[in-house]
Each structure stands twice: as C-alpha cells, then as structure tokens.
Amino acid sequence: MRIVVKPEVCMGCQICEIWCLVAHSMSKDILNAFLLEKPRAKPRIVVERNPSEYLILQCRNCEEPKCMFACISGAIYKDNGVLKYNEEKCVSCLSCVMACPYGAVKFEDGKIVRCDLCNLDPVCVKVCPNKALEVVS
Amino acid sequence: MKFLLKKDEMFSFMLPEFLVERRGDRCIKCRVCERQCGFGVHSYDEMSNTMRADEMKCVGCQRCAVMCPTKALIIRPHPSDYRPNANWTREKIQDLKKQAESGGVILTGSGCDKPYRIYWDHIVLNAAQVTNPAIDPLREPMELRTFLGRKHDKLEFAFDGGEIELVTELYPNVQIETPILFSAMSYGAISYNAFKSLAMAASEYGTLFNTGEGGLPKELRKFGKNAVVQCASGRFGVDPEYLNVAAVVEIKIGQGAKPGIGGHLPGEKVTKPISVTRMIPEGTDALSPAPQHDIYSIEDLSTLIYALKEATNYEKPVSVKIAAVHNVAAIASGIARAGADIIAIDGIRGGTGAAPKIIRDNVGIPIELAIASVDERLRREGIRNKVSLIAAGGIRNSADVVKAIALGADAIYIGTPALIAMGCTLCQKCHTGICNWGICTQDPQLSKRLNPEIASKRLVNLLKAWSNEIKEMLGAMGINAIESLRGNREMLRGVGLQEWELEVLGIKGAGE
Fold it and tell me: Percent of chain B beyond pLDDT 70?
C-alpha cells in the first residue's frame, strides 16, 4: 500500500502535516503536542512551499526502496510489504536521506524521521478535509 | 497593517466589519488560517512568535474558523458601532463612507438580505386529521416525479378492439425525479469545480442543473441531458450542439437579484478555458447587455422562442426566465402566449455573482406573491396548462418548496441553498473573485478547495434530504403525489398577514 496525493484537489492547507505531528507525539493531543512537548514531535508528511506553489512530500513505500538499499546497517527493512525502520540499528549515516528521490526521509535533531504508515491506517489520509490523500494498494 | 497611503489614496474612515478573536490558549501557530485566507487577514510574526490579524480585510466567510485544527478562532460581527440610530444603521453609514471614499457604485454578491416580509414564514401547512387519513411515506409510495413543459388542452385516444391508443402527439416534456432544480450559475461566475459538482449531482439524482449564460464546456456536454442551457443577452457559448445536447433551452430575460441589469464578468476572470467556452477573446470583459437587444416586445420574444425551437427540432421545451417585478402576471401571460413551455420567475431574494447593492436590495418583488399572482392569472385566462412554472429566489428549505408548489409552482430552482450545501457562508463577496470556499472564483489555487467528488455528494444529500422531507409533509396532508399539491392553496393558511396579502396569495387566514 502507499499514500498518493491528488494534486488537483490538494489545497496545501498542511492539516495532514499537523495531525501527523500529533500522531507521532508523546501525548497524542494537539494542544500538548504543539504547546508543551519539548522537543516537539516531527511530522513525517511535509508540505514544501514557496509563495506560489506547494508540494507534498510523502513516503511512497516503494516496491524497490532506494532508502532500504542504501541503508548500511539494516535499520530499514520490509515487513509484509511495508517499509519499517529500526531506530536502534540506525547509525545516522544519512544514506537513506540522500537516496530517497522523493525527499520523504528527513534528518532532524540528530534523528531520522520517516513515515511509518501509522500501522497501515494513515492519519494524514483520514484528516484531509478535501480528500486529496488516499491509500492505494 | 496598512498605514502608507498612495498619492491619491484617502485615509479610510471605515470600521472593520468583523472581529477576529484568537484564543491564545488554543492557538498552536500552525498558520492554517493564514494559508486559508484569500483576503490576507492572518499573518505570522516571527519576532514575537504570534499570529496577527488585519481585521479591515476580514469578510466573515468563516473559512479560517472552520479549518482551524484547534478551533481557536472566533469571527463575529465587529462590536464597534456608531451611536445607535434607527434611521442611520451601521450598514447605511458604512456604505455611505465607502462611496465617499471611492465614488463608485457599491457592488455585492448573493441575494437581498434586507428584512422584507418573508411570506414563507407567514404561511402554515395543513395536515390530515380524522376526516382523511395521513399517509406514512416510509410504508407507502409517494410520487415526486415532475414533468416540465407544455401540457395539452385535451388528449385524444383511438379505441381499436381492446386496445387504447394515444392519438395526440405530446409536447416535449422533461422528466425530473424531484421538483427541485439547480438555478442558473454560469461557469465564469462560479468555479469549474463548482459547476461540475452541480452537473454531477443533477445527473446522479435525476434532476436538472442550469448552465447560466456562460456556455457548457465541451467535456461536460455528457451531462447535457440534465442541463438547462441558457441563451442570455450576451449569447455566450451558444452553438447548435450546446442547444441540442440540453434537456431544456432557457431564454434569460432577467434575474431576481438584479432585474433590468445586465452582467459584467471582468476580463481578469475570463481565463483560457472560460474564453473557449464563452467563445470570446481571452482577458476581455464579458458584457451581457441589460435587455436582449432583439427582444423589445412579446412578439420579438416569440420569434426567439420559435427560432430556438426550430434549432432544436421542436424536441425540447423552451423556458423563459424573468425577474419578479410589478406586472409579473401580465408579463407571464404574454410569455405563455408567445409560445414558451416553461416560465421561471426569480424573486427579489434570488442570488447573484455580482450586482449593484442598491439594485439587489430594492428592485423586484418577493417570489411568494409573484408565483401566486402568475398562477392565478394564467388559470383565470385558461392557459395555465400551456406552461410549467418554476419559482426561484428565496427558497431556504423543503417547507418553502412545498409552499411554493401549493401556491402554484410546478418546480423550484435552488441556487443559494446549493451553494450553501457546497460550503458557501453567504459572505457576499462573490464579486471580488476571491472565494475562500473555492466556489465563486477563477483562481486555480482557490478552486482546488472544492473537490467535485465531495461537493456533488453534498448536493445529492441535499436533494435527498429535501425530497424525503417533502414526502413527509405530503404524507401528513394525506396526499401521495406532488401533482395533487400543485396549486392546492387549501393546504395553506396565512398567519399574521393583512387582507390584501391573503388576497394576492389566494389563501385563507389561519382558523378560517
């Protein structure tokens, strides 16, 4: 499965990004996640923008994942067709960040930040007010 | 915040219309409000790490309040006001100041918002008790199917043995599954996505949408059998295929929001696809003259009606849409005699994409009175069967639909309710070309906000909900078909109306 964006109805509101952050926070509460938690959790899905354009960067859960092939420590692996990441094995070499052609893997505050597909029930898809994100298998 | 004035610019004396309240304990500074506001009200200040609001720009469309993930925003009418004065209200003073600063005609969108008497709210419906049984629409069939078009004076049959055959050749009629149609809203006035949503919903539910005067894009001609195509004073987008794919061809004479006023789609809104659909050069103003310049009399109207019938091989009903004005009954009688199959009458509260505010708020008459007097006049003259009547402008719920039909309408046009179903909040800024809900705009980024899949679903739900409610009301009256309600004014009683109003409406007072 993977998350796809319908650019014709994506309005760049970044609500997916906000709720992704909440889903990956300690408290899972939007006010606590943004106002109290330090450090603030990181969103996995990110909307890149300049004044006139925007683009959603989301993990494609590729069939032939460049990030997994590039990983030197075996921290990225496939489990039942879903890309998984084991933080304990990661040596922060950033090979996956450089290998991902979609910019979906990020390195922030000394840690790899990547989509975990929310146990196959992605929050970003469920919160999109314009149904611009959908799960396809 | 704007303090710097251009050379010829005046310092504004206006008060803000809306107050933007941000609850500090809830704001997470995610800046969704900033990205959602097409008017540029919200902004983020990095130095103080706070969200700011320029209230002078706020139109109260509530987009930010709805989209805010923590519901931190409250947008309400600005409490700062002038000294209370029954004569000089805040709105009157503000409008006057605006004109003193601009020297222009004040433009606005949507329908008349002035407190003229809303007759729907002074009419109550009947219900069956003891002497006739009420019907449960959940258990028994209830017919809302409606046929629009001219009906015969009499039908002739041939009897051949046991076989009965209809000899009379029937006039073209259009079948709709519910007596609710979508009003004329043109591609150009509303966004492509909004236009497409109306087409999709009409097609799914089995009713009609109206193209307005902006033509029908080629790729949407597959929805033609659910389209009323307009031929208005600008003649935009009219070609033989346009007329022939449609279910009904409508001649637009007037619009309830601006009777006697033409249309003006500014050049900035005439983008490439709109210019192709309207068949005018890109970027030029699309001007619809106030009158149809080939129609200065009923005879002229008849010529156009028959020209359109000729062009469509006499296979489609031709409708004539007029605004409800003082002599509407006499005008409608003339239109029926001119050969129209359908007359659509648009009341004073009908909406618009842009109109001078002074016209919108002061010209025309309420649809309730217009439809009642037209129906009465056509009956008296024995020509009611020659036309179907469609009431438009000011219908807000299913009870209004039932009351309009009982007053004599065959069907109802809904424009504003359809827009509200899609997200419109009646902020009345349609004429600015900025619509934060993606409805009344040609900005490609703003138009994306309306997903036709979702919007058409909302419209179908609206039709479904109203149709079910109409069935409930019919059942309560002990009627099982909308046909039996049509012009059945016995089902109506007036409350709090004067003698002359009851007389025009043709209904008795409650208790009579």
Answer: 99
In this structure, how many other beta carbons lie within 10 angstroms of the beta carbon of residue B91? 13
Please state, in angstroms and rounded to a whole number, the distance separating the CA atoms of residues A110 and A119: 24
Residue B384: C-alpha distances to residues B273, B340, B365, B374, B473 (Å): 41, 12, 21, 9, 25
Distance CA A23, CA A118 (A): 8
- Across the interface, of A9, A14, A35, the residue whose CB is closest to B35 is A14
Contact B448 A19 (CB under 8 A): no
Over residues A93-122, mean pLDDT = 92
A52 and A7 share a domain?
Answer: yes
Q: Between B28, B30, B453, which is nearest A131 by CB?
A: B453
Helix B192-205 vs helix B452-477: angle between axes, to the nearest 10 degrees? 40
Yes or no, beta carbons of B70 and A30 under 8 Å apart: yes
Asked if the interface predicted TM-score (ipTM) of this complex is over 0.95, the answer is: no
d(C-alpha B160, C-alpha B156), whole Å = 13
Distances from the Cα of B410 to the Cαs of A40, B403, B434, in angstroms? Answer: 61, 11, 36
Per-residue pLDDT of B77-99, as tens digits, reads: 999 999 999 999 999 999 999 99
A136 in contact with chain B, both atoms CB, cutoff 8 A: no
What's the pLDDT tens digit per position in A55-90?
Answer: 999 999 999 999 999 999 999 999 888 899 999 999
Q: For residues B303 and B317, what is the distance between their CA atoms, to the nearest angstrom?
A: 15
CB neighbours of residue B80 within 10 Å: 10
Instruction: Say whether pLDDT at B114 is over 90.
Output: yes
Domains and CATH numbers, chain B: 18-104 (3.30.70.20), 146-509 (3.20.20.70)
Q: How far is B393 from chain A (nearest CA, A)?
A: 30
Query: With contacts defined as CB-CB under 8 Å, which chain A residues touch B438?
Result: 11
How far is A73 from chain B, CA to nearest CA, in Å? 36
Q: Is the per-residue pLDDT at B178 higher than 80? A: yes
Domain interval for residue A41 = 1-58+115-137
- For residue A129, whether the previous peptide bond is cis, meaning omega lies within 30 degrees of 0, is no
Residue B481 is given by DSSP the state B
Q: Do A129 and B30 touch (CB under 8 A)?
A: no
Nearest CA in chain A to B422: A130
